[in-house]
Design brief:
mainly alpha; about 210 residues; two-stranded antiparallel sheet
């Protein structure tokens, strides 16, 4: 009887977790589906590799120029996405910071959860800063930072849908990059804002004008 009870509890746990994750995936997809953010992100990353591998300076400059249009489009689309997602009900936008996913974790432990809407706002600002190159980096370093900003944004999406552990594993599998490496590569402002959000502290980073 004890084994049957344990199996029943585990089955119920799995079903509830799957339903919650499916709801989160559907919610995020209903907003992302309006835009070409993922396609633009993949195109940019491939383009950066082409630009950095181009030996001819003139052709390399042409690739960078083409990518600028892609960057602007991605920046604009993500800002629109973040603005639209800001209307999501707060209770549906909570993300648990606990290492494993289980049903209602964000509601059972509200002190260990953050607001996905605020995270997307941070990502939108970070992407915009990198695209405008407010720090005056070289093309190579700017592309490196923007790539990190995009990877961190993608990690946040996977974190919301699954868990931080799964998101970090996907980041490593897809981009051969660890979560801590991405955090170290984004701008100091993004890192401060994101860290403050996860730690539930007021951000002291500069705001976008």
């Amino acid at each position: 009887m004890e084994i049957v009870l344990v199996l029943a509890v585990l089955t119920a746990f799995t079903v509830l977790k799957s339903r919650e994750q499916a709801r989160r995936i559907a919610l995020l997809a209903s907003y992302l589906g309006r835009f070409d953010i993922e396609k633009l992100m993949e195109s940019l990353m491939d383009g950066y590799l082409r630009a950095l591998g181009e030996a001819n300076a003139e052709r390399q400059a042409q690739v960078w120029e083409h990518l600028r249009g892609q960057e602007d489009k991605l920046r604009d689309q993500f800002q629109q996405f973040a603005l639209a997602f800001a209307d999501v009900w707060a209770d549906s936008a909570r993300v648990s910071t606990l290492p494993i996913a289980f049903p209602w974790a964000d509601k059972l432990f509200p002190a260990h959860a953050f607001d996905l809407r605020k995270a997307f706002d941070i990502h939108a600002r970070g992407i915009d800063d990198a695209v405008r190159n407010v720090q005056g980096f070289s093309q190579k370093n700017r592309a490196y930072m923007l790539t990190a900003e995009l990877m961190l944004m993608q990690h946040t999406c996977h974190w919301f849908c699954r868990s931080k552990t799964v998101a970090s594993a996907r980041l490593l599998a897809r981009h051969q990059t660890h979560y801590q490496q991405v955090l170290a590569a984004v701008s100091a402002t993004t890192r401060q804002r994101y860290g403050a959000l996860l730690a539930h502290r007021p951000s002291t980073g500069t705001t976008q004008g």
